[in-house]
Design brief:
heterotrimer; A mainly alpha (292); B mainly alpha (325); C alpha/beta (409); A: 292 residues; mainly alpha; two-stranded antiparallel sheet; 72% helix; C: 409 residues; alpha/beta; 7-stranded mixed sheet; 14 helices; 14 strands; 44% helix; globular
């Protein structure tokens, strides 16, 4: 492979990594604070993509329709998530883990069919917004503009979340709760409210991921299942609950995928899994998580 | 503590009930159309798988996301033996749970070192590896074409005969499981589920017990897989898919994980629901999701738990001597 | 606790009896087993069913078959072989259908075919394409009224050889048996035409893949002469979208059997379509000119609002073929119908179709052409499309089939 080819493949790997980071970061955040593995996280991502498609299609006459959709779709998912948290999740926090898994699994089924009911089973396209459509051509290197945009979005979201957690009051509370929930409660934090807010933030991030990623390919039923396992893989590798871990895990995943398919096309799927298994066996709390 | 008098009549009623159910299953072929008998056969096999899973889930409190992996190991072992060799059907059938148990030893050894969500995710990862191996290794396992037209002895060709065969095997397995959960081993497992630290404190090797539960679970899951392979006369990679795993978890929840026969009730209801609902609507996942939500929020012990509560509440009100409720 | 079992059992019996189906009466019933839910169902199962319904209505209006009306019972296989077998059992044992037709997933087709063989019931594969169904795993009771993987890989190879003739081939396909089989069938056919052609790169994304970036970048960085792509369904659309962002179709010679099909192209837009690709179609009604087709596709559009593609053509044709066979046999006896079908020529939307006796495969032609988008139609379509002449050229010979069957255990 030529040098330019390697550069493009590297960019592709980073792009894939940033995409999966945007999708999965909310999952890690919610687990870190609420100690709940939200199996329906990818379904919320799908909901975000559908909302983005619907809003941008409804507003197709308006200029900047996509950007409006990008603004509104994550909010829609966050509101939906808030309702789910208040009405359903709250009742199972103190119960067995099995109940939590089954509840979030039921949500996968429900959200999936709700999307089908609302938008049908067809494949849908979200037009790539101007000026991000088309490729950037730099000599022999050709790369889509939109993917470059996503590569920028990854770190922006990361920095934004980092700032939120380090410098805001909500962030301090999140950190306190991640360390010791009982203590935070004893110190007067309104734990239920914080749970709701954090869960909504996680859903907002999932919806943002869905909206951002939607112009890259199609919006269709089953798109949640395709990424669900990948989300697990990266949060395990990076460390459940760790924000820098999620970023690192995503990058590793993206690069392993992009270069794996160069080396061994048929086994590429298994690489990420094997990595996950190795991490779980050797260092279950991931590269940057904290040991239980 | 129940009085001895109440205890004896309770046992008689229980055994009577069991016999009635067994007789019911035995005479079904006399009046049920073949297509429906085949469905009952599916239920029985799923019940065996779910009970196997429940050994780990309900009794030891270990939530696995990957039971389908071991189920598939059983199914594929039997299928591959029958396809590539001439060994008798019975041997191939036994090879299934045995190899599933062996696989469980290896997988379980890694998994029981972890707890909770990490345990669950590692079981999922292993199940996915099994799925990938079966899916990709076309030369040996025929990939997603699956192995179809598996040979079965002539007397097991008919639906009725295979039904009786399954019934016998499942009953034997259930009897074995019943002995296991009522043995000191089984009681220790339940103690472990309730409070692992305390159990460890009194000198029990928690990891060893969990591994044993994992392997026993794997054995019965493999048995169910092999039985299903003979029933359908085929195997496909999606026998190892995580959707199959969640199906088994839902069945356990539906019936009730704290009841020995809970998964049996669960599998009957699940397959019936699936059949009935899919004939009305294509939104079966939505209905299933709502059912699971309803169970989690309102019927915490599953159907079996619900009925059990009602029955013991009823018994308490009969006033046949004093009773601690 | 045992009481639950008893109560549960009684409950279950009651439920059973309440759901037992009513007994069949006069009409001739057949089973329609397909993927009816989800994206694949929308693209293949639903149109197939619509075509079948149109055929059944037409036939019943004209007096039915042997004086009796046709009736079909629809079941969803959910793209899952277990469900497919369960439904096939119900159709054959409970509903007592005379034949089953349908399926889009080759795994389901193979499983149902094996079951129907045991039950001595006719199974007609209408969409699922694996050549093994009528080839290696073929038997007396399975038929296919549609193309198979051999046909279209040969047709595409033929077109690629004529149009480009390059020696370095890049392969990309979905990572399951179908994709791998397409690769070997394509290279088999192509190397006969371009002898020292070889595969210089291959990629196997999973079905339903969302992120195409690393795949497209690898293809564009390779020095292949052209790409053979066996992606189908929704993957065609999402790949096209992602590839357009790379300027792929301006730079890469791309071919594949599903890249000219109505199912995929009717959803593409002027900004994002597989310009210049060599694509195929099973039923290019805009090229075909015969009375049956000319009457059918407008009717299909009127009734369903969709443009007819493979599934629409195949289901419709199968019903008429079964009618012709039953009438020729003069009875509903399965063995007689099988004998009637063997060697029969059906007048269909794609012209006269011969159902070969040795493997029960209809000699369905497959057209390949270059994708263009102009004012003639509101969607991209293949122009200057040609099919192999005679259609038999697209299929393995009877001797090859026999040898393949012997070779498979």
């Amino acid at each position: 492979m030529t040098f330019q080819g390697l550069i493009i493949q590297l960019l592709s790997g980073i792009s894939t990594g940033m995409v999966i980071f945007l999708i999965a970061v909310g999952l890690s955040l919610v687990f870190g604070t609420l100690q709940v593995l939200n199996l329906a996280h990818a379904s919320l991502y799908m909901l975000g993509a559908y909302l983005c498609f619907w809003i941008s299609a409804t507003l197709s006459e308006v200029t900047g329709a996509f950007w409006w959709a990008l603004l509104l779709a994550p909010l829609g998912v966050a509101i939906f998530g808030g309702l789910v948290e208040v009405l359903l999740l709250r009742r199972i926090y103190d119960r067995e883990h099995l109940d939590q898994y089954l509840l979030t699994f039921a949500l996968i089924l429900i959200i999936g069919d709700l999307c089908k009911l609302a938008w049908g089973v067809d494949f849908n396209m979200v037009p790539t917004p101007w000026p991000l459509n088309g490729p950037v051509i730099w000599g022999d290197i050709i790369f889509p503009r939109y993917n470059l945009f996503l590569i920028l979005c990854g770190p922006v979201v990361f920095v934004g979340l980092w700032a939120l957690i380090q410098y805001t009051r909500l962030g301090k509370i999140i950190r306190a709760m991640t360390y010791n929930r009982e203590m935070a409660n004893a110190l007067g934090t309104n734990v239920p409210l914080v749970y709701t807010v954090v869960f909504m933030l996680g859903c907002w991030l999932a919806g943002l991921g869905g909206a951002l990623v939607s112009p890259m390919s199609s919006v269709m039923p089953g798109m949640d299942m395709v990424v669900l396992i990948e989300c697990f893989i990266i949060v395990v590798i990076g460390g459940l609950g760790s924000l820098p871990g999620a970023f690192l895990g995503s990058l590793i995943f993206g690069l392993v995928n992009a270069f794996g398919i160069l080396v061994a096309p048929r086994l590429a799927i298994a690489f990420a899994f094997i990595l996950m298994i190795i991490v779980l066996i050797v260092r279950p709390w991931g590269l940057m998580g904290k040991p239980e | 503590m129940m009085e001895p008098e109440l205890n004896r009549s309770h046992t008689i009623k229980t055994i009577g009930g069991l016999v009635a159910v067994l007789v019911g299953f035995l005479i079904l072929p006399l009046f049920l159309p073949l297509g429906w008998l085949s469905l009952v056969n599916e239920m029985i096999i799923l019940a065996l798988a779910a009970c196997g899973l429940n050994l780990m889930l309900g009794y030891a409190g270990m939530v696995s996301f990957g039971p389908a992996g071991l189920y598939a190991v059983g199914a594929y072992t039997t299928a591959l033996f029958l396809y590539y060799t001439e060994i008798p059907f019975g041997l191939a059938l036994i090879a299934g749970p045995v190899s599933a148990a062996i696989a469980s030893v290896i997988i379980g050894w890694f998994c029981v070192r972890l707890t909770h969500v990490y345990f669950a995710l590692l079981t999922l990862a292993f199940a996915q590896i099994i799925h990938t191996i079966v899916f990709e290794w076309y030369g040996f396992t025929k990939g997603d074409d699956g192995i179809v037209d598996i040979r079965v002895p002539a007397f097991l060709e008919s639906i009725t005969n295979y039904y009786y065969f399954s019934l016998i095997i499942v009953c034997i397995c259930l009897a074995l499981m019943w002995r296991i959960v009522n043995s000191p081993f089984g009681k220790t497992l339940q103690a472990l589920r309730e409070n692992p630290e305390r159990t460890e404190f009194i000198g029990i090797n928690v990891r060893l017990y969990q591994l044993s539960a994992f392997v026993l679970s794997g054995f019965f899951l493999g048995a169910a897989g092999s039985l299903f392979c003979g029933f359908n006369k085929n195997v496909f990679p999606n026998y190892a898919h995580w959707m199959k795993s969640t199906e088994m978890l839902v069945v356990c929840l539906l019936g009730g994980v704290y009841n020995f026969l809970g998964p049996v009730v669960g599998s009957i209801v699940y397959i019936l629901l699936d059949k009935v609902i899919t004939s009305f609507t294509q939104y079966w996942p939505l209905v299933l999701g709502l059912v699971v939500l309803a169970l989690l929020l309102f019927l915490k012990g599953g159907i079996a738990g619900f009925i059990s509560e009602k029955v013991s509440a009823g018994r308490a009100s009969w006033g046949k001597g004093e009773r601690n409720v | 606790m045992k009481k639950i079992a008893l109560i549960g059992f009684i409950g279950f019996l009651l439920a059973f009896f309440s759901v037992l189906p009513a007994q069949a009466a006069e009409p001739i019933k057949f089973g329609f087993l397909h993927s009816l839910s989800g994206g694949v169902g929308q693209v293949y199962g639903i149109p197939d069913q619509a075509g079948v319904k149109i055929a059944v209505d037409e036939i019943n209006k004209a007096g039915g078959v042997l004086g009796r009306p046709l009736e079909f019972i629809s079941r969803d296989d959910k793209l899952n072989p277990e469900t497919g077998i369960r439904e096939a059992k119900d159709l054959i044992l409970n509903q007592k259908v005379h034949w089953i037709q349908g399926t889009v997933s080759s795994a389901v087709a193979l499983a149902v075919s094996a079951y129907c063989k045991k039950q001595k019931t006719i199974f007609v594969d209408t969409v699922a394409q694996s050549a093994a169904t009528t080839g290696e795993k073929g038997h007396r009771y399975v038929f296919r009224l549609s193309t198979n993987t051999t046909t279209y890989t040969r047709s595409v190879a033929n077109a690629a050889a004529k149009e480009w003739g390059g020696k370095k081939v890049f392969i990309i396909g979905p990572d399951y048996e179908y994709g791998h089989r397409c690769k070997s069938d394509f290279m088999n056919a192509y190397t006969k035409l371009v002898p020292d052609a070889k595969v210089v790169g291959e990629l196997w994304p999973k079905l339903g893949n969302q992120d195409w970036t690393p795949y497209i970048s690898k293809i564009m960085a390779s020095d292949a002469d052209f790409v053979y792509c066996s992606l189908w369904g929704g993957d065609v659309l999402s790949f096209t979208k992602a590839a357009t962002a790379f300027g792929y179709f301006d730079r890469v010679k791309h071919c594949g059997q599903d890249w000219g099909s109505m199912e995929a192209l009717s959803k593409m837009t002027k900004q994002s379509y597989d310009k210049g690709a060599l694509g195929g179609s099973h039923y290019p009604w805009w090229i075909i000119d015969n009375p049956i087709s000319n009457a059918y596709y407008p009717k299909f559009k009127k009734v369903t609002g969709m443009d007819a593609g493979l599934a629409a053509a195949s289901g419709y044709t199968t019903v008429y073929a079964m009618k012709a066979a039953i009438e020729k046999a003069g009875s509903l006896n399965t063995e007689k119908i099988v004998d009637a079908l063997e060697g029969m020529v059906v007048n269909s939307v794609v012209g006269p179709l011969k159902i070969r006796a040795c493997d029960h495969q209809a000699m369905w032609p497959f057209w390949v052409g270059k994708v263009v988008f102009n004012d003639k139609h509101p969607w991209p379509y293949i122009s200057d499309a040609v099919a192999l002449e005679p259609p038999e050229k697209g299929y393995r010979t009877c001797q090859e089939i026999e040898a393949a069957r012997k070779a498979t255990k």
